[in-house]
Amino acid sequence: LSPGLLVVAGSFAAFRLLNRGLERLVPPPPSARRNRWKWRNIWTSLAHSALPDAHNLSPRRFYLHPEMSKDLVGTHPPGAHSLVAVSVGYFLEDFVDMLCNQKLHQSWELLFHHSVVIICFGIAVLLHQYVGFALVALLVEINSIFLHLRQILLMANLVHTTCYRLNSLINLGTYVVFRIATLAWMTRWLFLNRQNVPPATYAVGTLGMAIMTPMNIVLFYRLLRSDFFK
To answer: Which of 8, 113, 148, 203 has its CA 20 to 30 A from that of 164?
Structure first.
């Protein structure tokens, strides 16, 4: 087995153990006790979202490594490959968790999203290429921190608090910057570098962008309608 696959397997096991123990670490409030698995699931997702910043792989890393903007195929900072492999393990764990605990008609969008991410990130882990491109995609997780906090506040029945309102504003702002703008930049990079990317990989990347972009626009509309135009 390649080291990357071992990291994926270790990450899957670690997030699975974290998921099992979270109810003791963060006991659900009375309003969330009817859906305990969802409470654990969101906190597990929040832990993963904090990983890019914890590994100092935030936008600052791209500033410190300007060569990455020119070569997202073979160039990446130290630790980036392992972080992408850890993320594959998390998405696999979350996929299994939803498949086992939620009805398909309630989770098919996220399952579809996770499938695309696992395939795209899996290619980067196995080939040790396009890790920089996957790293750009992980900037999305900066917004995911506030997206998961929103769900936690909703489950804790704190929707009418100042904390929820403030989080909604930050969530919307980071959504535009780290989701919509990031996906637009990735789509542009793929288009400009189509001659330097093998046809099969280019097809997977283009398909991934074609799926992710509409999904994120629809989610943005739902957030806007729910938190500001309700």
So the answer is: 113
